[in-house]
Model the fold of this input.
Amino acid sequence: MSNTHESLADQISGIFALLVLGAGLTALFLGYSWFWMVFVLGFAVALPIVAILSESLFGTGDESKSEWREDESKSEQVDEQQDALDTLRRRYACGEIDEAEFERRVALLLENKTVSDVRARREREQKRETERERERN
Done:
């Protein structure tokens, strides 16, 4: 339902812009000297008011923006995860890490949604390990 309202709000602004353009060109062709006022008032004043009113009446903007942000953040997460996998592959190929370490890190990366989740998990594990060492001593 919100997609219908959203497209309706977009259509209202577009239709109004065409009406302003048509009225201004009609005034120009009919020889009225004030034709330019139609463009100025129509595009600089009336069109923004129509856009704001259509957004407030139909509630557009917020839902589509949040969906766009979610899609963008998912894309960033995928890119970040792919970069981390590429780095792991490169380090394994160069011999910086062995196969067991490579597999462990890949599994850890794939278990979590983002690289920052992996970092947070690694920090928690390191804290637990240091606490265990303190208890032993």
Notes: Residues 62-94 form the longest helix (33 residues). DSSP finds five helices and no strands in the chain. Residues 67 and 87 are 30 Å apart (CA to CA). The chain has a mean pLDDT of 81.
